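Problem 12. The chain below contains 285 residues. Write out its predicted structure in token notation.
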Amino acid sequence: MTVRYILILLFALITCECDAAYDVKYEKADSVKVVGLLADARKQPSGTNYIVYFARQLCGLPYVSHTLETDGNEKLVINLRQLDCTTLVENVVALNLCMKQKCYTFKAFCDNIRKIRYRGGAEPYYPKRLHYFTEWIEDNTAMGICNEVQSPNPPFTAVQKVNVYYMSTYPDKYKMLKGKTEYIKEIAQTEKLLNKNSYRYIPETAIANSSLLRKTIHDGDIIAITTTLKGLDIQHVGFAVWHKDGLHLLNASSLRHKVVEEPTTLYKYLLKQKSMTGVRIVRLL
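Solution.
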């Protein structure tokens, strides 16, 4: 065990317990990881893109779905040992917020996760979790954390009319919804509100290595991939990273079973996914 790791562990023990009033589920490895990431980030040169930086620090972690589900009541789950596409985005955004706030404790990180995961930053409650990514975008935009980019046209030539109903139609697919009629009603009401909205997106055929796209999409933007899957709005999310050959996706991949910066361009990636139609772009402020 290195001296640096021992110091990080001691610092975590002193400053990183999450003593929030709401229930938090985490392991010591999570608090140590957060403190270590923030400590290392503070050593990076000025002008560092912390979104890309933190996302790359998490590369190689295993992809595991449903890590937020718990037995009994909803808890604020912190897990930096296993990620899916949404929790990768949430963890990176929360770490970035800590850097902006100059708050480097585990508690600050937990508070930020709660803020971006639940409607209006509410205390953990399953129906208030931002399950559909469209609502995630809308809620975090309202809190001044991000903003959806929908211009210029081109490349934003397509329009997505949201039509979500998957969760309320298939509640048995969700552990926390089974047998909970009131939860299902609340989810259905959220779906109804979301279905009033339309958003501009870039169709997959327009994702080129062009000066226009390089001006439109920035490194670290959240890429939300639109879909033809019935009842859903967004099929997958990750981060934009430009390479010499074009735009790439940094994501928690169920196909590769880990967090990875895709070796092929986003254009080629989308061509292989028949149900993926294009991308919505979300920029952190």
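Discussion. The two ends are 38 Å apart (CA to CA). Students who got a different answer should revisit the alignment rule from Section 12.3.
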